Amino acid sequence: MKKYIKQIHFLIFSWLPVLLYFGERSYIAQDEGYYALQARWIIEKNNWLAPMWWEQISFDRTIGTQWLIAISQRIFGPTIFSAHIPSLLCAFITLLITYELSKRYLGEDYKWLSPTILCCTYLWVNNAHLASQDMPLLSLEMIGIYSLTSNNKKYLNICNFFSGFWIGLAFLIKGVMVFLPLLALIPYIIFYKRNIYKSKAFISGLLLGFLPCTIWIIFSIREYGVESVLGIINKVHYLSISNDFAAPFYYYFWNIPVNTLPWSIFSLVGLLGIVNSHKLDKRLILFIYPTLLFLMLSIFKTKTPYYPLQLSPFLAIAASKGIQIISDRKHQLYSSFKIISSIIGVILIVISTYLLKSKASNTINLGNIDKTDVALIFLFIGLFWSLIIIAKKQKTLILLTIIGPYLAFIFTVQNGILSNRDIHTLSIFKQEALHSNLKDSRANIYYKDKLNNDLYSKLVKISLYSPNLGSRIKDLSEADSQDFIWINHKESKINASQIEIIYRNKIIDPWILVRNKKDK
Fold first, then answer.
1. Which H/E stretch holds residue 501?
2. Burial track 496-513 (b if 16+ CB lie within 10 A, e otherwise)
3. Where are the domains of the chain?
4. Which of left, alpha, beta for 367 (phi over 0: left; psi -120 to 50: alpha)?
5. Residue (of 171, 164, 172) closest to 208 by Cα position
6. Could you tell me how many helices (H) and strands (E) the chain has, helices first?
7. What is the pLDDT of residues 192-215, one digit of tens each?
């Protein structure tokens, strides 16, 4: 037990630099900004029932994530970091269970490798630093899978309890999307846990897990009516048919490999090794489960880069297995792996050197990343990969493969690249010209036309950063002369003689801050 605690302490210490960033943060509008804005309304309006969009109720999704953010901000203060605490805690849980599953199915030797790969996977690290639904959902799924697959008879009732408990909480977080992982687990349940529904502990966990959601739905129906709450079902129907976010069946066949490079390459080798395993439970959890989940996500009309987050721990475990297989000098790919990795490493060093010495503009069109950041990221990876060619021991080879990406992701996180994602919008709200006006006065919102994606995104961020948020007004005359109003100046039927422009900036254009003229 003492040895285990020491190992966990070391692992936690190695994970923290990828998880914790205490510098300046800013939101992206979709989807974390939307959830943070709804959490703000929960606190300010003290309405814990209905997801809100200004004064309108908006039952287009469940409310679990908004609750988590609101509770965190109530406890730790109304900061952007507080909004991210739930996702960061859930990311930690995901790492811990990935470690345990890796130990259970791949053995003791390199049990640390799978969670370390997860810490070096863009898809996972990116979502760990987003205040959205997906990391909490993933952590609950991992708790459920770990509990369901546990063979520890001493803690059988506890495991059965959590095998049911997570489902209701996951539904509160992500709605009916929870049924996809449940369906993917059916083969394992048929072979190993077909009688789990007879377990009192499982039934108790299932009922208790659904209790918060059940109470929320009952009170919401009493307050707002059945039709309003049915908006959740309507949203699922919208996502299941052709819409603005629809993509072809093959979308994830390229999107997942790209967002999980280079580990997606190793995972193919690892999956072959898992398929050839004589242990059925290992094949069912590490191959059949992610494969079925992948196919269901591909069939679903709506596709986003973050839906496959649910697959990332299993891809990391498969990649760990693949690296262990290839790094064995007896394997036919051993020499090719060393040569190709070292060549890539040298290429990355050359690119890094060019970027550092280049006199070209310091800006690369990658959001808030400049060429020096890119150069250093490439350099971290390239230096260690270039040395793979001289590695003789398997452990040395594996360490050289993972250390470079690990340091690169620590640098990426600690440089604020994945946390301070919209520096420019946040910065204008810190300018005296805008801050001095908004700090003591309400900022209302006025618009009539349907918002396109750009207008919507900017409005979410404007609303989040306005210190005293007012209401959405239906007519400019509704606002007091002391209150400010954010309006879309390109929208038709706005009487310019009625208002005075207080602030405008091309970063948030066409939204401008105005106030009714006192002598109107």
1. strand 499-503
2. eeebeebbebeebeebbb
3. 2-323, 327-414, 423-516
4. left
5. 164
6. 24, 9
7. 999 998 899 999 999 999 999 999
387, HSE (Cβ side, Cα atoms, 13 Å): 16
Can you tell me the distance from the alpha carbon of 220 to that of 378, in angstroms, rounded to the nearest whole number?
51
- 3-state secondary structure labels for all residues of 130-195: CCCCHHHHHHHHHHHHHHHCCCCHHHHHHHHHHHHHHHHHHHHHHHHHHHHHHHHCHHHHHHHCCC
Q: To which residue do tokens 């109304």 refer?
A: 78
The residues, any chain, with a CB within 8 Å of residue 93's CB and separated by 6 or more, are 139, 142, 143
For the whole model, what pTM was predicted?
Answer: 0.91
User: Do 95 and 118 touch, CB atoms closer than 8 A?
Assistant: yes
- The C-alpha atoms of residue 180 and residue 293 are separated, in whole angstroms, by 6
256-284 tens-digit pLDDT: 999 999 999 999 999 999 998 889 999 99
User: Of 386, 342, 304, which Cα lies nearest the Cα of 127?
Assistant: 304
Q: Kindly provide the b/e burial profile for residues 110-143, where b requires at least 16 CB atoms within 10 angstroms of the residue's own CB.
A: bbbbbbbbbbbbbbbbbbbbbbbbbbbbbbbbbb
